[in-house]
Amino acid sequence: METTLKLADRFDAPIIRRDCEEYLITDEEAKLHQKIIWGDRHNLPFLLDECIKKTPSARFIRELMESDESRHLSQSFKDILFLKMLKPAPV
3-state SS string over 3-63? Predict the structure, then answer.
């Protein structure tokens, strides 16, 4: 998937990028943290919205932010995750 997204970015292929995004939204095999990284790196806003909705807990966000993978995230998306972590879970 990463290679396809890189090629879609390189050759400015929005249809391919959209198809990848739609696939990733429904894909159950890809890990959530990997979807977040791909979504942020390749500017896939619908995928990122779905990932934020599916983020299980503040602990998950904290572990992601403390991992080596967080260096691949943009500062603006880190800010979004931080705000999500501070927001209380609905009862």
Answer: HHHHHHHHCCCHHHHHHHHHHHHHCCCCCHHHHHHHHHHCCCHHHHHHHHHHCCCHHHHHH
58 occurs within a structural domain: yes
Q: Is residue 51 included in any domain, yes or no?
A: yes
Residue 32: which domain range?
2-86
Cα–Cα distance measured from residue 16 to residue 8, given in angstroms and rounded to the nearest whole number: 6
* 82 within some domain: yes
The DSSP code for 1 is -
pLDDT in tens, 28-76: 999 999 999 999 999 999 999 999 999 888 899 989 989 998 898 999 9
